[in-house]
Amino acid sequence: MFGADASVFAAVFVALYAAHEVGDHWAQRSAEALGKGGPGWRGRWLCARHVMTLAAGKAAALGLAAVVLGLPLNVWAVLAALTVDGISHYWADRRTTLMRLARWVGKGEFAALGDGAAAPAGTGAYALDQSWHIGWLFVAALIACLGVG
Prior knowledge:
149 residues, single chain, elongated
């Protein structure tokens, strides 16, 4: 069950990371980027739609990598990995949750750095958001490798 080849893990992580970068920055609709942290059902729906699109892109990247590189991935492990990643992504992208965590661990001042309206990708909140996502990509890659011998 454990002990997957490190090269399989590396390929899985790279595929997830590349799909994350494209999905979080190019595939995400403007309405999702601007509204996914908003209140009520509209904000929740925009966030869920973004996460579903992102998960589809990650699944496609993993599928392509598996075929081209001959990766012996278990479909159930991949589904579990994408589910864990999707939940963590949704949780962070609702924004208030990640900001509460940042304040709780003493990163509130860093999270507040920069003008989100002028440079949303250059703020402390953005850096914390992306590092959160990448950390969970690592966990997802480990999960996706379960059952690979």
